[in-house]
Structure formats: C-alpha cells, structure tokens
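Task 17 of the worksheet. Students: predict the tertiary structure of the chain below and write it out as structure tokens. Keep your answer in the requested format; marks are given for formatting as well as content.
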Amino acid sequence: MKKKANIRPSWDEYFMNIARLVATRSTCMRRQVGAVVVKGKQILATGYNGAPAGLAHCEKKGCVRQKLNIPSGERHELCRALHAEQNAFLQAAKHGVSLDGSTVYITNQPCSICAKMIINVGVKKIIFGGDYPDAFALDFLKEAKIELERFADCK
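Model answer:
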C-alpha cells in the first residue's frame, strides 16, 4: 500500500494561514485583520485589530466610524481599535523582543500609520493579503525600500 504524500505548506503559506487565524480574534465590526511578525522562520509576535487591553470592544460600544459613515482608510484617529500591526509591535515591545530585520505577514495592506511604524521597528519585508485604500502607505514603504509582496493566493 502506497503512503499518501504529505503536502506541506510553503513558509509563506504557513505564516499567512496563521495571520488569518489570528484575525479571527478581531473585535472590529468592519474588518478583521491579523498580523504575524517572523524572523528566521520563528514567530516573534502576533496581533489583531481591536480595542486596547481591558477596554470594551467595539461590538459592545459601537463603531463611531460606522455611525459617522467614515470611509475605510480615513480618519484613523476616530477608531477605537488598534490595528493588527500595532498590536503585534506593542506585544513585542512589552516582552522585550526586537523586530529589526523581520518580516510581517498581514491579512491586509498596511495603512500609512502602520507603514510608518513598520519602518521604525525595522521590518524589512511585508507579505500582505487584501487591499487597503491607502496609497500614501505604499509611498512610505517604497521610499524606505521595504520589500512589499502580495501573497500569491490573494491576487
């Protein structure tokens, strides 16, 4: 009897699948996003979008941006939640983990605020899934020479 071949995911598939799983913890009413920061095939930190620790989630408090009909990608300061990348970076900082030279897998393209944080924490490569309406972020990342790659099965 022939043994069935074990089909292992590539490293990119593996980490993007984990980012998708992390996104399922999101408490955002508009978009569920997950991020996984990796270096040397080791996970350094994860994050999903949601309210700061200990505060009521958006699903309980309501979404101000939704109430005001603010389009996606605009007026981030009115959002109750932190973005997935922000939560991953804060988790790393809280535990004293350097992200310098890392890769971040994100279920969506980063916004301009997260792009600036990505630059400053030393991420060298971003692998992302879906789009996000923020061309300004792409300009920052290009200027900083950070490699940006759309995940193959998200085209």
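Marker's comment: The chain has a mean pLDDT of 93. Strands lie at 34-39, 42-48, 103-108, 125-130, 147-150.
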